[in-house]
Design brief:
With 165 residues, the protein is an alpha+beta fold. Helices cover 55% and strands 14% of the residues. The structure holds zinc ion.
């Protein structure tokens, strides 16, 4: 996800947020290298089949969430009654408030960490639903010239899952 940029002089907590996300990106990269070496290169038949199965006319959009996401953690950390107007929270995170409510309701028994993981996936689903409201996307899906996928990259456990939206 693109966490965007803010204007003006950065505050220390914002910088911390960015630093944490940078670390996540680094881990995402190294995790992907591992995935490539241990899964992709060991099972070429699976991926060759996928590549051949794709019609060249179809464009694919994939929205990928990831483990230990700083943005998601920030979203889940906000108290329900607190104003979302703080500029600490990026706009893309605010969009996922319905996902937060869903996770809060369904998984109140889980630990904060576990709720974060649920929310990381739930946020992808919200993003996909938002995409479907764009006329271009809606049309593409109807005409089968566009395919929409969700993905979740768990670099803590080295797992990568995708699903068709
Ligand atoms: Zn993130």
């Amino acid at each position: 996800m693109n966490h965007g940029k803010k204007k003006g002089r950065p505050r220390e907590e914002d910088l911390d947020f960015v630093r944490r996300e940078m670390t996540s990106v680094e881990r995402l990269k190294s995790g992907f290298e591992q995935f490539k070496k241990e899964v992709y290169e060991k099972k070429p038949e699976v991926f060759n089949q996928l590549a051949e199965g794709q019609s060249p006319k179809i464009e694919n959009i994939i929205v990928i969430g990831h483990s230990r996401c700083g943005g998601i953690k920030a979203l889940l950390s906000i108290k329900d009654n607190a104003s979302l107007g703080t500029d600490f929270i990026e706009d893309w995170v605010k969009i996922c408030t319905p996902a937060k409510e869903a996770v809060n309701q369904a998984h109140s028994d889980l630990s904060f960490e576990e709720q974060c993981s649920k929310l990381e996936k739930e946020a992808v689903k919200v993003s996909l639903e938002n995409l479907k409201t764009y006329p271009y996307v809606k049309e593409g899906l109807e005409n089968k010239t566009l395919a929409l996928y969700g993905g979740y990259y768990d670099f803590v456990n080295g797992a990568f899952e995708t699903w068709e939206a």
